[in-house]
Predict the 3D structure of the following.
Amino acid sequence: MGIKKMKKIVLASDNAHKCEEIQAILSAFDFEIVPMREAGFKGEDIVEDGVTFEENAMIKAKTIFETLGVAALADDSGLEVDALGGAPGVYSARYAGEPKSDQKNNEKLLEALKDVPDHARTARFVTVLTLLYEDGRSLVARGEVEGVIAHTPMGSNGFGYDPLFVVPTLGKSFAQLSSSEKNSMSHRANALKILCEMIGKIDENTGN
């Protein structure tokens, strides 16, 4: 099956903003990105019990692929802090436990780093995207953006750990950037750029 003929891809998420962002970046390939509930997925929330971003992204993509029988795209994202051995990692969304809370997650992170000096507060946001085609082929793209963890929250835009994640070259946290600024350099944007390159190579190799 040619890549150009695959019009619809179901996203393993119901996040409208995420769907719009992915749609815009993949528009060159004539894909229609559809949120999973809109596409007919009626199951419970997908259990992400992998120990890596790659495993979780594949779990979500496979669940959609096997349930709906369509091409599926999934992402898994999180924050890796070097001084914490890569934590919170795949547990980023629920770092402080259930129910998940951005504020409590940020408070727990600041407490864990309270005695860590500036030079050792390095971290990165990571996104892994997994695309499963209807014929079973798969592509996996990993995007990252490097930063440092601030001592106090800064800015009111964004979500999650954005107020604490500072981009050294800008001297600003993700929460101090506009949406367009953040999206131009974010981990998800970087992963999508890599995915686009991979799709483009498949196009060249298949002549589609």
Observations:
- The longest strand covers residues 138-149.
- Strands lie at 8-11, 32-35, 72-81, 88-89, 122-132, 138-149, 165-167, 172-173.
- The two ends are 10 Å apart (CA to CA).
